[in-house]
# Entry
Amino acid sequence: MATFKREFEFKNDIRERISANIRKYRIKAGITQEQLALDIGKSYDFTRRLEFTHGEVGCSIDTLYKISVVLNTRIDKFFE
# Structure
């Protein structure tokens, strides 16, 4: 069976996009960074850096899931 390299376009700014969308949906929900941090079991500094470092700080899929639950937002919305 022959295999070949397929071509895909991967966005380089996906972490920056996720970061911006977390901030957008957090503000829309009326939740502070401190409250989000408390709700997901992370430090305030983590949530602050997650939003304001423009994707330099990432998070696990588990953390992203918790954020989606707290913000009552489907997880796929963070990737738009």
The CA atoms of residues 29 and 71 lie 6 Å apart. The mean pLDDT is 92.
